[in-house]
Amino acid sequence: MLIKKLSDKIAGYLSSELNYDIEKREVLSYGLQIFLGCSIQILIILVLAYFFNIFESTIIVIISFVTFRRIIGGGHAHTYSKCSLISISMMILLGALGKIINLGSTSSLIVVILIYILSIKAIIIWVPAGTEKKMIRSKDTRKKIKLQSIILLTAWIFLCFYLNSLSLTEYVIQSSLGVILAFFLVTPLGYKLIESKRPKTTTT
């Protein structure tokens, strides 16, 4: 893979300059792969969004999705190519839907409230959601993340109420789509969609 080769070369150069051992070089290379991979994905998404005239809508979807995703976790594709395909496709699709869907103020509030209720349920049952390689098993840590997720979700719904009061319902819908995707990926169906195995949770 081009990204891996590039990351290895950069990590090799930096490691020689900083006198890193092999283990630190591998960690640096892995971090670079993630950074470069995500950067390329975002660049492609933004270029396509601009081309299809859904740039603003897509940005709002991405911000909303990432804000929750980084805390609640969720399934990950096993390969970079599959991850890229899923990420790009979903963001462009939701960005397009965010521009097409047109709901009134009352309907938008109903949607947001339903998302809030279902997301709270998802937090209680599945959050934090990890993978076989990265799973949080500490009972105290899991409770802390659940609480953080509920606080963030509550802040989000109040923000939606505020935007709705300003008649910015399009932003509410676009943000809602990002939140829906984030929470969908912590569910068993979300894991199945991207063919990622959900690990069994044990606490200590």
Write a short abstract of this structure.
This protein has 204 residues and is mostly helical.
Alpha plus pi helix count:
8
Shape by Cα distribution:
globular
Q: C-alpha Rg, in Å?
A: 19 Å
- Any low-confidence stretches, pLDDT <50, length ≥5? none
Amino- and carboxy-terminal Cα gap? 39 Å
The total of beta strands comes to: 0
Give the mean pLDDT.
91
Question: How many structural domains can be distinguished in the coordinates?
Answer: 2
Strand content: under 5%
Helix content: over 70%
Main beta-sheet annotation: none
Give the helices and strands as they follow along the chain.
HHHHHHHH
Classify the secondary structure makeup into a structural class: mainly alpha
Topology, element by element:
Elements: H1 2-18, H2 22-51, H3 55-72, H4 80-100, H5 105-126, H6 139-165, H7 169-184, H8 188-193
Helix pairs in contact: 1-2, 2-3, 2-4, 3-4, 3-7, 4-7, 5-6, 5-7, 6-7
Describe the 3D structure.
Helix content is 77%, strand content 0%. It is mainly alpha-helical and 204 residues long. The chain folds into two domains: 1-51; 55-204, no CATH class. Helix 4 runs antiparallel to helix 7 (169-184). The mean pLDDT is 91.
